[in-house]
Amino acid sequence: MKIQNAFRVGLLGGLGVIVAIGIGSAVTSLSTILTYIGAALFLALGIDPAVSWLEKHKFPRWSAILTVLLGIVAVFVGLVFAVVPVIVDQVSNLLSNLPDFIKTVTESTWITDTQKSLPSWINLNELLTNAGTWLKNNAATIGGGILSVGIGIFSGAAGFVIILILTLYFVASLSNMKRGLYRLVPASKRAAFSDLAEQITASVGRYVVGQGTIAFANGLFSFIFLSIMSIYGLKYPALFAFIAFLFALVPLVGTITGSVIIVLSTLLLSGPGIALWVAIYYLAYMQIEAYVINPRVMSRAVKVPGAVVVIAALAGGSLLGILGALIAIPVAAAVLLIIDQVLVPRQNEL
Question: Which of 40, 132, 283, 299 is most buried by its number of CB atoms within 10 A?
Answer without folding.
Answer: 40
